[in-house]
């Protein structure tokens, strides 16, 4: 114990040692961040102001937009600041908080996407019971449960990861604090508690995936029984965007944790680990609003009201 060094800060990875490339990285990330921020903020504002959008589906979409804003804001601004300041340090407590928030928002988003698939299942397969099942109180409880599940997993991940001793080196091979990169620099070889937490988180993801598959299995079976000219456009316009968002989120997350080699120094590998915190929040506003007539109508009303 006498040789154990107390770690008070960590060093996040540089995008490049070249200053011009550092600036290019910062500008690119800033552009992506602003697109995600403005897109999700616009959806949040439109749903809040337009009374026609005060329905369960848009209530959950509003929560999803807020989660996307939070998720991308945890990692990207810090990465931009590091690129421009020549300082890659993050405090020990800052790293704990960043890991906790990333897992909280990512876990909450997966749970919320599962709840949204249940909402679409009730709306399409049990339309006569929709108003009695998807009441305001039940929607709030499901949203709270989504946030709570993410918080529990985030607390487990951060508590078990930072219960490990870190005695050097303190360079994290990543743009932000995540579990795999922190395990690499821990001087403990016993990671049983962390693996248990990861298994619980993986179990939650598998449960969500199975639930969504079952929901959309029923949805597509029901939709295919409807004449194509009547119900298909509306059903697919509300269901397919949600399914696309979930697939993007899961695929990019898998690329980060299962496909990327942790011992690689490739910039491409490091970029993969940022995808699940950047790609879904950036694409969600486009996917949900591009072909959504209600959102387009709300946007036209907002512009007319703003400039009238």
From TrEMBL:
Q: Where in the cell is it found?
A: Cell membrane
GO cellular-component term (any): plasma membrane
The membrane spanning regions, by residue number, are 23-47, 96-118, 139-159, 192-219, 240-258, 270-290
Q: Which UniProt keywords apply?
A: Cell membrane, G-protein coupled receptor, Membrane, Olfaction, Receptor, Sensory transduction, Transducer, Transmembrane, Transmembrane helix
Superkingdom of this entry's organism? Answer: Eukaryota
GO molecular-function annotation terms?
Answer: G protein-coupled receptor activity; olfactory receptor activity
Q: What is its main location?
A: membrane
A Pfam family it matches = 7tm_4
Q: Which residues form the G-protein coupled receptors family 1 profile domain?
A: 39-288
PANTHER family, sorted: OLFACTORY RECEPTOR
Q: What does this protein do?
A: Odorant receptor.
- Family in the record: Belongs to the G-protein coupled receptor 1 family.
Kindly provide the name given to this protein in its UniProt entry. Answer: Olfactory receptor
Q: According to the entry, what is the taxonomic lineage of the organism?
A: Eukaryota, Metazoa, Chordata, Craniata, Vertebrata
Tell me the gene name: LOC110200266
């Amino acid at each position: 114990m006498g040789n154990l060094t107390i770690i008070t800060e960590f060093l996040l990875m540089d995008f490049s040692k070249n200053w011009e490339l550092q600036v290019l990285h910062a500008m690119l990330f800033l552009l992506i961040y602003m697109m995600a921020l403005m897109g999700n903020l616009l959806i949040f504002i439109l749903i809040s102001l337009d009374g026609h959008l005060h329905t369960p589906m848009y209530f959950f979409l509003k929560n999803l937009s807020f989660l996307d804003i939070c998720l991308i804001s945890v990692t990207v601004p810090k990465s931009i600041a590091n690129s421009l300041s020549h300082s890659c340090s993050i405090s020990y407590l800052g790293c704990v908080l960043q890991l906790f928030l990333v897992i909280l928002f990512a876990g909450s988003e997966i749970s919320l996407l599962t709840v949204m698939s249940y909402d679409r299942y009730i709306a399409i397969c049990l339309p006569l019971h929709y108003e009695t099942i998807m009441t305001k109180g039940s929607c709030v409880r499901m949203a709270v449960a989504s946030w709570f599940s993410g918080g529990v997993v985030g607390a487990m991940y951060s508590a078990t990861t930072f219960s490990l001793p870190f005695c050097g080196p303190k360079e994290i091979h990543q743009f932000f604090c995540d579990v795999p990169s922190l395990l690499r620099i821990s001087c403990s070889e016993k990671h049983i508690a962390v693996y248990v937490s990861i298994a619980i988180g993986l179990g939650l993801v598998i449960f969500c995936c199975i639930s969504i598959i079952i929901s959309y299995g029923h949805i597509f079976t029901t939709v295919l029984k409807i004449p194509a000219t009547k119900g298909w456009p509306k059903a697919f316009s509300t269901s397919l965007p949600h399914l696309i968002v979930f697939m993007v989120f899961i695929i990019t997350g898998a690329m980060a944790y299962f496909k990327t080699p942790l011992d690689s120094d490739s910039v491409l590998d490091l970029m993969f680990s940022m995808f699940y915190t950047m790609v879904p929040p950036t694409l969600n506003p486009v996917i949900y609003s591009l072909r959504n007539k209600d959102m387009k109508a709300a946007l036209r009303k907002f512009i007319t009201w703003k400039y009238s």
